[in-house]
Description:
Blueprint: E1 3-11, E2 16-21, E3 27-31, E4 47-54, E5 60-67, H1 74-115, H2 119-146, H3 155-176, H4 184-205, H5 207-216
Antiparallel strand pairs: 1-2, 1-4, 2-3, 4-5
Helix pairs in contact: 1-2, 2-3, 3-4, 4-5
Amino acid sequence: MHLTGTVVFWRDDKGFGFVLCDNTAEKLFFHIRDNTDRTERPTQGDRLQFSLAQDKQGRNIAAPWQLMATRTASTSKKAISTSYQAAEGFSIQYAHQIALIFRISFLIAVAAALLFGRLIYVLPLLYVEASIFTYWLYKTDKEAAIARHGNRLTEESLQLFSLIGGWPGAYLAQQQLAHKSRKHQFRREFGFVILGNALLVIWLFSSWGQAFLSRMALLAN
């Protein structure tokens, strides 16, 4: 056990949490079953010694681990908790700002592609970009949910990015991050989003869609 870190989140009833690694600044999952010393249970702000392992999905986790001999004072724990929550707040605020910039840039890109008659050709690239960005949004919102941060991304915002082409990234995030995958209403709405997106693409490749694209291509040669 040569790595050390600070517990930034712990859910005692479930027996799992996250530790912020001093060496890599990476937030790692850890579970009570991997504790080498079963006499004590961790709390937020405690210091851990651990080794690096991987879960079934190939993600880095802290295992095995043990509490360090000297526990952090309660005042220090509170300071760590406050600073971590502030960092999560900044992360969510940053996500909101980047999401706004992405929406504007995406609309400009679509409008330009329409005017130059190149929408069909750039459509795969738009899907890839939207999917990568949507996956990142899911990941950010998942971390905020784990930290129990009040300022979260709205479900409507997540669905919007799925609708404009990011649904493959959203689907991957739901499976890998287990985020929004158990909310039946959200999943039902997500299904309609995929259906609507698929129908739009089919229409674009139809004769009616091609005629529409031709009329919009004002700057095409």
